[in-house]
Amino acid sequence: MIKYEHNSRSDSMLRALSTMICIGVNVGLSFAACGLGLPVFLDTLGTVTAAALGGLFPAVMAAIFTNIICSLFNSHAIYFSLINALVAIFSSWFVREKSFRNVKNIFLFVMINALIGGGLGGVFQWMLFGEPQSEQITALLNYAGFSSGVLNILFFLVINIFINIIEYLIFLGIMQFVLHYVPENVKTRIKNSTWRQKPLSLDEVNNLNLLNKNIRFSIKKRILMTLLAATLTLTVVMGWIGISLYYGNAKQDRTENAMSTAEAAAGLIDPDKIEQYIANGWEAEGYSETADMLEKIQKSSYEVEYLYVITVSKEYVTFVFDVETGNGEQAYEPGDKVDIEDDFKPYLPALLNGEKIEPVDNKGIWKWMRTIYYPVYNDNGNCVCYVGADVSLNYLADYMKDFMFRVVLIVSGFFVLILAFGLLVTGVYMVYPIDKLVEGVEDFVSAGADQALLDEKVRKLRAIDIHTGDEVEKLYNAICEMASSQTEQLRSIRHLAENTSHMQDGLIITMADLVENRDSDTGAHIQKTAAYVKIIVEGLKKKGYYAEKITPQFMSDVVRSAPLHDVGKINIPDYVLNKPGKLTDEEYEIMKTHTTAGRKIMEKAINTVGGENYLKEARNMAAYHHERWDGMGYPEGLHGEVIPLSARIMAVADVFDALTSPRVYKPAFKLDEAVEMIREGAGSQFDEKCVEVFLDALPEVKVILRKYNAGA
Fold this sequence. Notes:
Shape: elongated
Largest sheet: 6 strands, antiparallel
Low-confidence stretches: none
Mean pLDDT: 85
Number of strands: 6
Strand content: 5-15%
């Protein structure tokens, strides 16, 4: 495994160098193929290699810049940047998700790239040029001699795809050969050079994407939508501006041409013969010669669609000459009259007065026709007729479709490059750092109060190593500092809590010792009962008894406060507490008061410290450890589970220690006898579950007996 080391500048330069080499390979091979007249372009070997080395953006960059440079010696190359960009996208995805170790994947890689390059590229060729770019393929199609245009196109696509299959098989072999000899550390540096944090594996990226699946509109989507909208808007604006400029220039050029044509035609007309031309037509002297010259003028000005001579009256126009256009339309004969249309009427007064008028426009959705009317005057300065010259942009629709198609093809490649760059920048500078930071913070929060786990989460948070050089890195550093400070504060608080706990435990033992020192024969009673309590509570936890009650906190509180169960004996007089013989009824009643006295002492302590926790259980054990399961105990005669669990546990521990320890008024019972007495008390004096787990742990009990009872 190669260790990650952040060296962004040199790694980025290495990636840029590898991309430029891939572009150079593409351009060199394409130049050779173009120079040799081969039926292939050979311009994607560097693209698929860049995809394998650096991923999506270097591959798309190699594809687009290859076509830009290739357009210097092949003007049509720029139109196929989208094709190479699609090859780059598919190849980068395939290299990331698949493996070339089986034939199926190799077949899939070659076929899809061949369909993109040969199939879709062939469709683009036919739409742009109406035929293949390669002379060899054109000759092959001519040799095949398909009568149907559809069959011709299909045959061309099949040939093109087949050629691309061979091409990509060769490319794949060369790519694998090159990658085999590129050092692993170089490949790793190129692949990781885009990251601005510790590089993520594919699984880690997928996991982060899963974490974001519930986000309705992520940062990545917002930025990509913005880039998409901006690019599409720019494309539409550029196309509209281009068409508008062309339309305006074309309109002006055609208007000037029509004006020149009409003026030239007017110079050929004899104004004194207009009436004779209308009356006699082709039989009139000079009519045929004039018509022939008008036809030559119309043909020499290919942009003028119609050329004619008319006279104007209030109701109709009368044709003098009408040049045949050759498009199948029947020309008007001399003397033919046509009613004046409504669109023509606004110009009628000026025409009747023999004035020059502005060009007349006839507009449609996909058609524009402009007519120039040039007056012909006689020697007296009277207008005898008008020469009409019509120019049209009827083919504007076809031009617009072709123009927009070419603009889309050119811009689409740059569009893909912009999106790829947007994906790269958004991902490595924002999305993945923020996602990884969120994941690290959530891990840190989930660690709770576990100090070791908190330390580990802080190390993992720092290991993300975000170095975007912007606000994200600043936020990351601030969060790392905050997490470290919080961890250290918790460590200090924990140390303080531990010291406080030790002090509290010391106070408990001191208080218990004060009581025990007054009792002449308890013999390490508080140590043994605390140990027995620990055995019982752990046994209950292990068997799942009282699971809702026995939490780690409860177990700690019970064990810590067990030494205080007899704290109330501090109020019992010495003559009763240390009496060597059996107590009288009155003395026994006094002895029983140690439970209520213990409760009062602990309640006062609870009120003093302002909290409960282990003191609550100390109070319960002090007050109720002489209660019985059957309700026959004291001081309140509680029964069953009404008795606090901590007191029921202490009851077993306290009685067992009393049985197995010698007193001034009795010797110690043997272990078997004490065990039997405890067993017999289950269900009457003791909680059966507490007895069960205590007896199950007899080996541990014996260890405690041997430790504290000499000769036991």
